[in-house]
From TrEMBL, chain A:
Span of domain CS: 3-87
Mapped TPR repeat ranges: 370-403
Region of interest (Disordered), ranges: 166-214
SUPFAM superfamilies tied to this protein: HSP20-like chaperones, TPR-like
Biased composition (Basic and acidic residues): 166-197
Protein's UniProt name: Dynein axonemal assembly factor 4
Top-level division of the source organism's lineage: Eukaryota
Protein's organism: Calonectris borealis
CDD domains named in the record: p23_DYX1C1_like
Pfam family, any one: CS
PROSITE patterns: CS, TPR
One function term, GO molecular function aspect: nuclear estrogen receptor binding
A Gene Ontology term for the protein's cellular component: nucleus
Keyword Cytoplasm set for record: yes
TrEMBL record, chain B:
Keyword Cytoplasm: yes
Annotated compartments: Dynein axonemal particle
Assigned keywords, A-Z: Apoptosis, Cytoplasm, Repeat, WD repeat
Origin species: Calonectris borealis (Cory's shearwater)
Name of this protein: Dynein axonemal assembly factor 10
Lineage: Eukaryota, Metazoa, Chordata, Craniata, Vertebrata
Amino acid sequence: MPVWLREYSWRQTGSAVYLSLPLRGVRVTPANIFCTDQYLKVSIPPFLFEAILYAPIDDTNSTAKIGNGIIFFTLYKKEVAMWDSLTLANANKEKLQYLRENAVLKAHEKAKEETEAKKVTKQEHKKYALEATMKLEEAERKRIEDLKEKERERVTKELELWKKQQKDAEKQKRVQKEGELHQEVEQLKEKKKEKMNKTRIPNEGTSKTRLKPTKGCHGFYSMFSENVKEEQLPAPRSAATIKINFTSRVFPTALRESRIAEEEEWLRKQAEARRTVSADLSELEDLKEEEKNPDWLKDKGNKMFATGNYLAAVNAYNLAVRLNNKLPLLYLNRAACHLKLRNLHKAIEDSSKALELLTPPVPDNENARVKAYVRRGTAFCQLELYTEGLQDYEAALKIDPKNKSIEKDAEKIRHLIQGTTQDS
Amino acid sequence: MSSGGTERPQLVAHVQQALSYTLFDCKWVPRSARLLCLGSAARGTGLLQLYELRGGRLALLREIEKAKPIKCGTFGATSLQQRYLATGDFGGNLNIWNLEAPEIPVYSVKGHKEIINSIDGVGGLGIGEGAPEIVTGSRDGTVKVWDPRQKDTPVANMEPVQGESKRDCWTVAFGNAYNQEERVVCAGYDNGDIKLFDLKTMSLRWETNIKNGVCSVEFDRKDVNMNKLVATSLEGKFHVFDMRTQHPTKGFASVSEKAQKSTIWQVRHLPQNRDIFMTSGGAGSLHLWKYEYPAQRSKKDSEGAEMGVAGSVSLLQNVTLSTQPISSLDWSPDKKGLCVCGAFDQTVRVLIVTKLNKV
């Protein structure tokens, strides 16, 4: 239950009401005061003061002054009149309730309206500011455009002027040239006349030759000048060649600094892929650097095979295989050596290993695969395992159907097989 | 934005013309307001178009079609009266045309096995002395010098040693042609090599590698004692070499600048002021630069040999005209500041650079 405050004093003038409400020992803030046009409430729990005013007041302009322990209200009346009392006398509970609620509602609405109004004004201000800045920028832009336009016009005019000057200059030159030529021709004619007058016979020849070049005014003039010029031009240079070397570059594309790192990575990876797979054999320390390179050893082996030194070739291939056992060509070539040496089982082994390494079967390793099949086939035949041999020859034919020698050999083997089956 | 102080040169776009073919090179016809566009039509033939500047537009005067697409051309080796155009095409043929009678070339030779990437001429146009010569650089890795008076065989041939794998030659330029005997050819290759060949002694005078493919080289003046050489490359870099002092081991001093992220396709010096040059870029931009000489152009190193000192380069202005690379650029030798540029968006643009007198 709130504590009602009933001690108040008031006085009035025609247009205002002055109300003072003593509050001892409580702190008042503006939030505690609630006022609408006919209802005034001060609520500081547990204290409560409320008054239903005699007549409506102008609550927006009315003020409340919070002093030491007292609130002093200055309420401006809506209608200028003298009030009989501060509050409405006959106020029953219901009316009170209704008035209270109304008051609260009104206050709410007012607050809403105020916020709306504020928002609207804020928006308008923003818009205005935006428009102002846009105008400024537009003006700036226009100014720059105008400057540019002016430059452009000025420069175009200059250009036209220059063109005109050029044309005039050309015309003048042409006129001048013709004038000069005319003069020259006149001079010559005069000279000719003079010479003719002096002695006729010996000079006729010369005068004729003199006049010949005057086919047309232009022809004479330009030939004259060209003769002079050609004397001044040096002869064409004697032909020579300069040989040059380029800074080496592995890739066919142009050099770009930003790509150097990528390219080095790629090259490094390629080199590593070719390098030794098992490089921790202690005997390898004795070998020279190049002897540790499987490619070099392969080349060595090939050379020795070519000269007929099959055992040495096999040795080279063996060492190469120890260094890198993933190169199919090493096994392939070793198989050929074994064939020559008639180590047929070893030849079969090596060709099989080569074929294993030559998966996946792609066009790039066609050649190698054909050779592998042929060698294995030969080895089988020499061991008299003709059916296996035929199988391999047919596989080789499948890869390379155009090879005549393989066909012939396959035929031979077929005959042989048929021969033996017939016999047995 | 080409704004800034009102004292800086402005690059004003004067005329723009859309073309219906790929433009590879554009050149001013000397002593006239006409320009030539060289390129390749969609059907794989070469096109030569002659335009004249009239008012605010380009008027087409002649159109000539040839069998092979034309990559580059020059007026450098003809006299002013004749004004014959030397062109290099995609088939490796060097032809010299009389534009008044273009059906049959005045001179023709199948100079190279592959496309001629770049051509330059010297000895004509009343500039300098000496025999008129044309140099061509091709994708087959060779650089050949031709004299229009000598048929079929080049006067000088710079080719790779037997067995050497070839690199594309992307650009060539003449220089040092200050009297009848002296002449020098500079060639840039796609692996970053720049080689300087001396034609008087028929030897390689200097070479270096600038770590990026060389797109364009030009001396500031062909007909004086060689002064400066600008070499532009991929990755937006260009180098200015001071060519007055050659050190026995270090070669020529240089200053380099990174202008933009894209390739710098061309460099052209202003004919009326050899310290101003313009570079065109792969992003469709043009940059105008000024070179400033150092206080002393040469100094002695620790062993007493003379060594050049490079100066500095400052950007005067830049403008972006297109989204495609501007592959060709030419200053008019008659009107200061007038230039034409051709881009891969099939447009040719005429620009005027103002305030060059105040630079």
